[in-house]
Every structure is written in C-alpha cells, then in structure tokens.
C-alpha cells in the first residue's frame, strides 16, 4: 500500500520555526527517524521510505501554504495514493497547544492550506493530524501569532510533542486511522 504524508508549512528561513510550520517540523522528524532524507523535486521537498512493507512518501510543499493542494494532488497522482491514505499534518488554532488529534475528515476551519487541498483534491474527506497551537493572541493579531515562533515554554515541550506526532503517523500507516485515534489522540 502507498501512503502520502504531507507536512504543511511555508518555505523560507523567515518561516522556519513558526507555529504555521509545525507540519514541516513533524515531517522532518518522521523522515529523520526513518533514516531517509528530502530532495527538492517538483512542487515539494520529497522523501520516501518503506515501513512494514508500505511505501511511504513524505512531502513538504514548496508552493507556500495557500497553494498546498497543488502539490498534494500532484503527488497523489504520481504515487498512486488514494485519498484515505493521505495524511495532512497541520497547525490548528482551535485546539490548545500540546493537543494532537487525528481525524478522518473535517472542514478547513479557515486554514488556507486545508482550503487549497479541499479545492484540488476532492473535498473534506481526507485524514489530517491537527497539531494544537492554541489561540493565545490579542484580537486582530492572529497572523502575527501563527507566523511567530513558539514561546520558550512551548519550545521546551516541542520535541516530545513532535515525537508523539511521528508515532501517530507511524501508527496511521501500520494499523489505520481508527485505532490510531483511539490509542494516541491527546486532549
């Protein structure tokens, strides 16, 4: 079986360690733990490895967040991955920092990367791993918050959270979304 793991983020050093780039950070750690590496290919940084007999492709779109669907659609076709085997790792303002929740489908909730995937990949029915970044920002400052770095307390917790997200992705590939949600979603 073929799987496509998509870490959402923005390319460029100015975005490197921002909340909006947590998808890239999780993808980097997944690939590192698999002993693989990324290459710059069409529309994305691309990596692939085998996990328990499954072909796992990992991409970090280079299209910027608002056009992520373009890269996802391209690699779904190229790698022959059905939509239910695509997992999008995304930052989520609606859940508290430290919460990790996998879902089989859902709305974009205003997230431009998810909106693009919905438009170009056939709707809202695709798995996603929502990485909670919280909503601790003053009214009207959402963009600054999302494109800003994690604070010191959050940075201290990030390695363990990213590692848990990697375990969730590995579980998704090995045993499927339902058992992964039951066993590994956090509050």
Automatic annotation (TrEMBL):
Answer whether the UniProt record assigns the keyword Phosphoprotein to this protein: no
Listed under catalytic activity are: an N-acyl-L-alpha-aminoacyl-tRNA + H2O = an N-acyl-L-amino acid + a tRNA + H(+)
Q: Name one GO biological process term.
A: protein quality control for misfolded or incompletely synthesized proteins
EC number(s): the record gives 3.1.1.29
- Residues that hold tRNA according to the record: 15, 64, 66, 112
Which EC class, in a word?
A: hydrolase
Catalytic residues, per the record, are 20
Q: Name one Pfam family in it.
A: Pept_tRNA_hydro
Q: Which domain of life is it from?
A: Bacteria
Q: Which HAMAP family match?
A: Pept_tRNA_hydro_bact
Q: From the Swiss-Prot or TrEMBL record, give the protein name.
A: Peptidyl-tRNA hydrolase
From which source organism is this entry?
Sphingobacterium thalpophilum
**What is the gene name?**
pth
């Amino acid at each position: 079986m073929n799987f496509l793991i998509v870490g959402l983020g923005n390319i460029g050093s100015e975005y490197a360690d921002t909340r909006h780039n947590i998808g890239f950070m999780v993808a980097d750690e997944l690939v590192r733990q698999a002993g693989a590496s990324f290459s710059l290919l069409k529309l994305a940084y691309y990596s692939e490895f085998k996990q328990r007999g499954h072909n796992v492709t990992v991409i970090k779109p280079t299209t910027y967040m608002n056009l992520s669907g373009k890269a996802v659609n391209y690699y779904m076709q190229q790698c022959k991955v059905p939509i239910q085997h695509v997992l999008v790792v995304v930052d989520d303002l609606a859940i508290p920092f430290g919460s990790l929740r996998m879902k089989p489908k859902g709305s974009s909730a205003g997230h431009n990367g998810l909106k693009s995937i919905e438009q170009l990949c056939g709707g809202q029915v695709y798995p996603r791993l929502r990485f909670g970044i919280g909503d601790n920002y003053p009214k009207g400052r959402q963009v600054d918050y999302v494109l800003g770095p994690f604070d010191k307390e959050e940075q201290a917790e990030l390695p363990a959270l990213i590692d848990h997200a990697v375990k969730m992705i590995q579980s998704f590939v090995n045993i499927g979304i339902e058992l992964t949600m039951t066993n590994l979603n956090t509050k």
